[in-house]
Amino acid sequence: MSDPLDKMADNAKELGLDYEPARDSGIVTAGGADPRTQRTWVGLTDEEYINITDSVYHKGQGLVAYYKAIEAKLKEKNNG
């Protein structure tokens, strides 16, 4: 009979998921990370969206600049 962790690894591979028995928490996710060790995602508030809109989009810089400003703000809030 095979080891339960080997069976979990085989099942994860069949589903196209990353899995390393050494990091086993009993939870397998897409990307292989244990969700209990992941930080909580912090989104933008309505006020932050409005501020970005006022500072970028309404000044005629276009959608790409707007999206990049949103991305930069999200990275700032989520990467410390």
Give a concise summary.
This protein has 2 domains: 34 residues, no CATH class; 33 residues. The chain contains 3 helices and no strands. The chain is elongated.
Describe the protein's architecture and organization.
The chain is mainly alpha-helical and 80 residues long. It has two domains: 4-37, no CATH class; 46-78. It has three helices and no strands. The mean pLDDT is 76.
The N- to C-terminal Cα distance equals 47 Å
Number of domains: 2
Describe the global form.
Answer: elongated
> How many DSSP H or I helices?
3
Contiguous runs where pLDDT drops below 50 for at least 5 residues: none
Brief descriptors of the model:
2 domains; mainly alpha; 80 residues; 3 helices; elongated
